[in-house]
Amino acid sequence: MRWRALPAGDQALLLELEDLPQTLALLARLQAAQAQGLLPGLGEMVPAARTLLLEFDPHQCTAAQLLASLQPLLQTLPQPLQGAQEGAARCVPIPVRYDGEDLDALAELLGLSRRELIERHTGCDYLAAFAGFAPGFVYLAGGHDCFAQVPRRATPRTRVPAGAVALAGHFSAIYPKASPGGWQLIGSTPCVMWDLQRPEPALIQPGWRVRFHDLERPGASISLPPAPPAQPNGVSGRTA
Question: Which Gene3D superfamilies does this entry report, sorted A to Z (predicted)?
Answer without folding.
Answer: 3.30.1360.40, Cyclophilin-like
